[in-house]
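**User:**
Everyone, produce one record:

**Assistant:**
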Amino acid sequence: MTTHDVFADALKRLDAATLHANVHPETVARLRQPKQHLEVSIPVRMDDGSLRIFTGYRCRYDDTRGPAKGGIRFHQDVTAAEVKALAFWMTFKCACVGLPFGGGKGGVIVDPATLSSAELERLSRGYMRATAWAVGIDVDVPAPDVNTGPLVMAWMADEYAAVIGHREPGVITGKPVAVGGSLGRDDATARGGYYILKELEQRLGLHTRAEPRTVVIHGFGNAGENMAKLCSADPAYRVIAVSDYTGARFNPKGLNIRAMSDYKRKHNKLEPASELADGTRDISNAELLELECDLLVPAAIENVITEANAPRVRAKAILELANGPITPEADAILWERHIPVVPDILANAGGVTVSYFEWTQNKSGYYWTLAEVHERLQRKMAQEFSDMYEVASSKKLPMRTAAYVHALQRLAPALESTGTRRTYAKE
């Protein structure tokens, strides 16, 4: 992660949106600070017998519209500012797609690759013990994020049950299906973005082209890999480049995504182009971001498109599956260059939407089929994109600002429902 102040950037999005929304100043003031931000120490006994103290965070940014919702990431570059920014984004993301949630986020400063499986379990359980009093099915509902997944969520849900004395599966989403997880959660972030891509094409007129649309994906983690799989399985698209921490692979004729996924599953990295005989070549992550393509999908980390490289981006449109991959300065450049950007708070909201489905199923004790999950997700993504796009078109705004305006139209009435200065000031 860079030293860029991601929380300050997040607040710039709010300030831009308030210029186009009828929002009371008190609402803006409340949304500029988190409701609760915890820093905890997590002692973990390592396999060699030594004790390490890890630092963890949990931020409940806003819960006016429902319990906070947001993932837990394990990464060596986690900071308090990053966690606050992510929780802020979750607040607006849940409002943007009309979910009865507020925003939350968590993180631990650790490189999980340096831990054994047993150490990772002790850290996961230790994090939950340290934060159990601050989470809950109707308080704050964590989920997976960077370097966490169903197994870590299962450990945390199990530890929470030990702390409170009974099972409460809805306290965590993104769990294995066997312990209350939802079908369709594994690829939900990418699938939600894929459904939005279909809507975007209709608005931009790209769907009428006979030849496949070219797709470039920065990142090959859960979101990036699943987006690549969905697009490569659709004859309307040709995935020409993907990347991970080792660099990027580029083939203008299209990549064999299934083979690349198989290799990654065995080796935890992309296969070097030198081992391929199909014309694929190695390029850098920086070069990937500047490839000519129809759709660029940043699906890795924050701040990869900045004012330095935005003038060289050659995509016809950008869909953000990562959180905060474009800086505000780069946003302005892309807007001036007429490159539409579907913002993260809508484009990657498929994950939290299916987490909401999981939470709902846990609370009711009734579970849906995979087809039902996909159908409900498609309907939700299409409707919210349509509503956001209408705001953007009618007000002539970038889609990011329109998405925040769309979210504020739900957040403001909730925050103002208990009164503002107008309620108490004397005439």
